[in-house]
Amino acid sequence: MSEVETVTDADFNAYVDDQLDLSGRARVERHLAAHPEDAARIMADLHARTALKLAFQAVPADMPAATLEAARRLETGLAGRQAWSGFRRAAAILVFVTAGWLAHNAFNPFGPREVNASTHPPAYVAQAVEAHRTEALRRGMHSQAPSTAFDAEEIRSATGIVLPSLPDGWTIAEAEVFPSGFGPSVEASLLTPDRTRLSLFAVRPGHFAVEPVESTALGETEAAWWQIGDVAYAVVASGRDPGLKGKAEMLKSTLY
């Protein structure tokens, strides 16, 4: 019988702060894989910290000194699980304050403008785009009947992939398990209330992370992607879809 590993609040805090070595991170991640409630709490902490860092990195030079100091304290002074939980609401408030400050500057016609380079997508996004194109090709072939049967629990049991719940009015037209460079993946064809067809691709890329939604244009398609835990997701649309990132955010929110 294998020895039961003990994971403490200090271990969780060090994990969130990225202060563990590889063996320590693996020990915590084994615990999280076996304890969904702890995993959800840690992912929420990582998500809040990531949002705070993104907001802090994007602040303009004329951000008030008091706000900057509050951001630094929230980012670097969170010692222990209890302290981080207590500061989570303050961190969220700071993110909104920062977002409001940035929006104010964005609508200032005399202020400086910053151009962000396109985000380079991870490798699994290219496979999501290929799955999207394959589904479109298959849909146009009379000999390739779509699989209308869908069982999210069966997919989770067979592949370890948890699919997001669909917003009101969305439907799944087809779902297939695909091979990928990372092992089995899932590609589902979604229909939005306005009958727009999107592809949802989910795969286990081989590492644990919590990543925000990013998006970019890839050839004749638009893709948005994110990762929660050991599963990564990508939503792909044919042509340009300015609202794709927002749709991806809606899907992501159902996974917490």
Share of helix among residues? 40-55%
Structural class call reads alpha+beta
Q: What's the quaternary structure here?
A: single chain
Poorly predicted regions: 77-87, 92-99, 101-118
Q: What would you say this structure looks like, in words?
A:
There is one protein chain. This protein has a six-stranded antiparallel β-sheet with strand order 1-2-3-6-5-4. The chain folds into two domains: 98 residues, no CATH class; 131 residues, Phosphorylase Kinase, domain 1 (2-Layer Sandwich), CATH 3.30.200. The chain is elongated and about 55 Å long. The chain is built from eight helices and six strands. About 14% of the residues have low confidence. By secondary structure, it is an alpha+beta fold. Helix 4 runs antiparallel to helix 5.
Give a quick precis of the structure.
With 256 residues, this protein is an alpha+beta fold.
SSE layout and pairing:
Layout: H1 9-16, H2 22-34, H3 36-57, H4 65-76, H5 81-106, H6 123-139, H7 152-159, E1 171-178, E2 185-191, E3 197-203, E4 209-218, E5 221-229, E6 231-238, H8 244-253
Antiparallel strand pairs: 1-2, 2-3, 3-6, 4-5, 5-6
